[in-house]
């Protein structure tokens, strides 16, 4: 246990000092940390899922507080919570339906469990009610009843379990089963996060055609893999890279692209509007995708999106599933942005007389935001590892990946 | 309209002919129908908007006349809904008695009426009960064809009953009591829905924002009340909302809560739009496309807000989702209400008396419902899940 605490504290420190770069790396490290938390967590015999959920939530809150701008942290914490709920639900419904899941148990005991203290509702009704608590609230379940009625058979079944004869064997195997399933689910999540680039790059051939001109901004590994995958399938096209001041990451991307044999042109950010009429498609890697379909990307993408809209150029956003955030941007310019050091714009020593507040004369302020928000009506297509989607479809993916109870942490 | 079709000439011919009104046999015609024979316009006054006007305490002289005439003509008209004849039970009466309460939504009143039907029913199987409820639902819907939330509420409840009866229950009484319990709890659900919506929308109101409100929606009022209680600093611009004068009423209520309010005439919306940060409206109904049907003037405000890049937020409970897909403004059931111009209007002059309009989904930013914050495209998904 203390080992886990120190791991968590170390990771929180790394997040706070922004030592981990990139949402994929952050997401992977977070999930691996949560996996250790889960495997080390000792769970009680009744209501194990709740204990796991509480433990993960506690750690998750610390992580999110350490770096609130890196939305991938909150996203994967919510994914893990959703996995726990799902596995718990499938185990409970399987047990209630009388399936013989447990390795060491007698059939007689299972029948006894079902007979003892069971409410006067058929198992199908109860299972349906339990399933409805996991899905987000919908019109169907509006009149069904409050979640309390669903948890009543819950505890009664676990109470019935405790009354059965082979109780210790049943309980410990049930415990192991839940944790085992959850860890399997978490491993799958890690696989998904690691493999998102390949999944997205597979779809490149459908979107990039012969002799096209693609515009991109800044540097994104997803975009790099996407373009290279199309190149490998023998499509010949040109790429314009906007340099992405003040970090000039576009230069790095241009170097990589040339190394892979693509014809590349570097332009300044201010030249985007001038060049947009000669471009067939704009492809951007997102930092995060919000629930309304809005995109948080590197600073400058909003300008590229507006230019693309004006010239009717398709604006395509690439995002792995760990970037999908279930929150709505209430005030995106302020809340989800990070201001970096002004030294990226102005060298130390330059303008020192204007910047000196003590002198009292003239105060020069330097604002260096990291991110930009693109509203959903400017985006034509989202390409995630599950395929290409409309911005108005993002709520569906979010409903699939996350539970409604985990939105507020 | 004047350029695209000369239909107004045809309409005038039609209006001069004598009209016959047909209604379903087992429902008492609404009181305004008594006037319809003398009214050149064949469409009756919408009962839904009459009730809303009554809630707001707005009584026009025309409406009062009609109500008095109705009382004179139909003193005790009963309609028996249950299959056992000889029992004077009227779904319409029940519904009306619930509807008069200003705090209760239409759908809630309808479902309370259904609860009364269940209590009074003598059915012995779920199927029988379902048939009775279907009849009651059809009666209510036929009585007021213009109210969307009424139709939606009835349909929702009927779906729930159908689904419940499809499951196997040991005995009929427990099923009946379960359905009855749900129907009576629906009022609680509705109040809870308003509170959930109020909580969800808190994040979207930042300190120092200016909100434009149109029409007196009880949900939007709940949102503003909750924000005031959370000590948020904001200011509200109310449109006057002619001819219901809803804006004045809302302004009075908001002033009681110490919220800074400014009244605008309906035409001043574009003039004030640049100082507005967001627009909040309620909805009489949310249609399948994700658009809304609301008090006349909402479409106008949404268009202006959209052209000036201001977000339009709709606050609506989920039981208002209806299976309608209007393609234009005239695609709705005409819902008319008396327009008091305070000066006598010569009889040759036509008056546009529609009480509501349809706002297409592309002008709406987000919907706040008790199912969560939704984009307009989610509505059709929810409806498909429920009905198909």
UniProtKB/TrEMBL annotation, chain A:
Keywords: Cytoplasm, Initiation factor, Protein biosynthesis
Compositional bias annotation for Polar residues: 138-155
Keyword check for Iron: no
Region feature Disordered, mapped onto this chain: 138-173
One example GO MF annotation: translation initiation factor activity
Location in or out of the cell: Cytoplasm, Cytosol
Family per similarity comment: Belongs to the eIF-2B alpha/beta/delta subunits family.
Summary of subunit composition and partner proteins: Component of the translation initiation factor 2B (eIF2B) complex which is a heterodecamer of two sets of five different subunits: alpha, beta, gamma, delta and epsilon. Subunits alpha, beta and delta comprise a regulatory subcomplex and subunits epsilon and gamma comprise a catalytic subcomplex. Within the complex, the hexameric regulatory complex resides at the center, with the two heterodimeric catalytic subcomplexes bound on opposite sides.
Protein name from the UniProt record: Translation initiation factor eIF2B subunit beta
Gene: LOC104732599
Automatic annotation (TrEMBL), chain B:
SUPFAM superfamilies the UniProt entry points to: NagB/RpiA/CoA transferase-like
Gene3D superfamilies: Translation initiation factor eif-2b, domain 2, Translation initiation factor eIF-2B, N-terminal domain
InterPro entries xrefs: eIF2B_alpha/beta/delta, elF-2B_alpha_N, IF-2B-related, IF_2B-like_C, NagB/RpiA_transferase-like
A GO term, aspect molecular function: translation initiation factor activity
Keywords recorded for this protein, A-Z: Cytoplasm, Initiation factor, Protein biosynthesis
Region Disordered: start-end pairs: 19-44
Pfam families recorded: IF-2B
UniProt KW Protein biosynthesis keyword: yes
The keyword Cytoplasm appears for this protein: yes
Domain of life per record: Eukaryota
Cellular localization per UniProt: Cytoplasm, Cytosol
Family: Belongs to the eIF-2B alpha/beta/delta subunits family.
Assembly and interaction partners: Component of the translation initiation factor 2B (eIF2B) complex which is a heterodecamer of two sets of five different subunits: alpha, beta, gamma, delta and epsilon. Subunits alpha, beta and delta comprise a regulatory subcomplex and subunits epsilon and gamma comprise a catalytic subcomplex. Within the complex, the hexameric regulatory complex resides at the center, with the two heterodimeric catalytic subcomplexes bound on opposite sides.
Name assigned to this protein: Translation initiation factor eIF2B subunit alpha
Gene that specifies this protein: LOC104778325
């Amino acid at each position: 246990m203390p080992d886990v605490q120190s791991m968590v504290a170390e990771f929180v420190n790394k997040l706070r000092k922004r030592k981990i770069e990139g949402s994929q790396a952050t997401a992977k490290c977070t999930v691996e940390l949560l996996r250790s938390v889960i495997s080390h967590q000792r769970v009680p015999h009744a209501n194990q899922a709740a204990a796991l959920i509480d433990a993960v939530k506690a750690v998750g809150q610390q992580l999110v507080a350490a770096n609130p701008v890196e939305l991938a942290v909150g996203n994967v914490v919510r994914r893990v919570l959703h996995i726990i709920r799902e596995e718990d639900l499938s185990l409970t419904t399987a047990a209630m339906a009388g399936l013989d899941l447990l390795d060491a148990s007698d059939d007689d005991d299972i029948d006894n469990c079902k007979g003892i203290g069971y409410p006067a509702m058929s198992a199908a009704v109860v299972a349906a009610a339990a399933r409805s608590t996991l899905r987000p609230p919908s019109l169907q379940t509006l009149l069904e009843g409050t979640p309390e009625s669903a948890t009543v058979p819950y505890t009664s079944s676990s109470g019935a379990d405790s009354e059965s004869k082979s109780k210790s064997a049943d309980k410990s195997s049930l415990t192991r089963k839940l944790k085992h399933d959850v860890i399997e689910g978490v491993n799958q999540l890690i696989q998904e996060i690691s493999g998102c680039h390949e999944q997205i790059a597979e779809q490149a051939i459908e979107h990039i055609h012969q002799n096209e001109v693609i515009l991109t901004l800044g540097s994104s590994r997803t975009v790099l893999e996407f373009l290279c995958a199309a190149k490998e399938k023998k499509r010949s096209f040109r790429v314009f890279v906007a340099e992405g001041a003040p970090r000039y990451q576009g230069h790095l991307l241009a170097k990589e692209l040339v190394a892979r044999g693509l014809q590349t042109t570097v332009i300044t950010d201010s030249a985007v509007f001038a060049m947009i009429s000669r471009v067939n498609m704009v492809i951007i890697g997102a930092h995060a995708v919000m629930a309304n379909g809005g995109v948080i990307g590197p600073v400058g993408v909003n300008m590229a999106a507006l230019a693309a809209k004006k010239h009717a150029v398709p604006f395509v956003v690439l995002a792995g599933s760990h970037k999908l955030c279930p929150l709505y941007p209430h005030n995106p310019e302020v809340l989800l942005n990070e201001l970096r050091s002004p030294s990226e714009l102005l060298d130390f020593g330059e303008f020192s007389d204007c910047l000196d507040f003590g002198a009292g004369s003239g105060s020069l302020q330097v604002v260096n935001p990291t991110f930009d928000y693109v509203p959903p009506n400017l985006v034509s297509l989202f390409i995630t590892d599950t395929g290409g989607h409309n911005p108005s479809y993002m709520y569906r993916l979010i409903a699939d990946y996350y539970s409604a109870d985990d939105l507020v942490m | 309209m004047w350029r695209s079709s000369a239909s107004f000439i045809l309409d005038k011919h039609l209006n001069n002919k004598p009209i016959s009104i047909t209604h379903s046999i087992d429902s008492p015609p609404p009181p305004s129908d008594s006037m319809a024979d003398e009214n050149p316009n064949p469409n009756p006054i919408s009962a839904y908007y009459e009730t809303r006007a009554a809630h707001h305490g707005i009584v026009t002289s025309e409406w009062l006349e009609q109500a008095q005439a109705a009382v004179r003509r139909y003193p005790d008209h009963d309609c028996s809904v249950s299959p056992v004849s000889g029992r004077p039970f009227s779904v319409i009466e029940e519904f009306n008695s619930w509807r008069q309460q200003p705090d209760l939504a239409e759908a809630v009143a309808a479902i309370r009426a259904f609860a009364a039907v269940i209590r009074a029913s003598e059915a012995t199987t779920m199927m029988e009960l379902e048939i009775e409820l279907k009849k009651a639902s059809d009666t209510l819907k036929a009585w007021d064809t213009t109210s969307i939330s009424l139709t939606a509420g009835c349909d929702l409840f009927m779906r729930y009953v159908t689904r419940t009866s499809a499951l196997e229950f040991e005995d009929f009484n427990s099923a009946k009591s379960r359905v009855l319990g749900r129907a009576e709890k629906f009022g609680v659900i509705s109040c809870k829905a308003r509170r959930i919506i109020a909580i969800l929308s808190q994040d979207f109101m930042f300190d120092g924002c200016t909100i434009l409100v149109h029409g007196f929606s009880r949900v939007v009022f709940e949102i503003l009340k909750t924000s005031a209680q959370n000590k948020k600093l904001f200011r509200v611009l109310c449109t006057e909302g002619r001819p219901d004068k809803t804006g004045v009423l809302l302004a009075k209520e908001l002033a009681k809560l110490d919220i800074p309010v400014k009244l605008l005439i309906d035409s001043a919306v574009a003039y004030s739009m640049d100082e507005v940060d967001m627009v909040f409206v309620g909805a009489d109904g949310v249609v399948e496309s994700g658009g809304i049907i609301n008090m006349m003037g909402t479409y106008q405000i949404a268009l202006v807000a959209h052209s000036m890049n201001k977000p339009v937020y709709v606050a609506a409970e989920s039981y208002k989702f209806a299976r309608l897909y209007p393609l234009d403004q005239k695609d709705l059931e005409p819902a008319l209400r008396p327009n008091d111009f305070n000066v006598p209007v010569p009889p040759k002059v036509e008056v546009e008396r529609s009480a509501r309009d349809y706002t297409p989904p592309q002008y709406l930013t987000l919907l706040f419902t008790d199912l969560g914050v939704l984009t307009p495209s989610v509505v059709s998904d929810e409806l498909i899940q429920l009905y198909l």
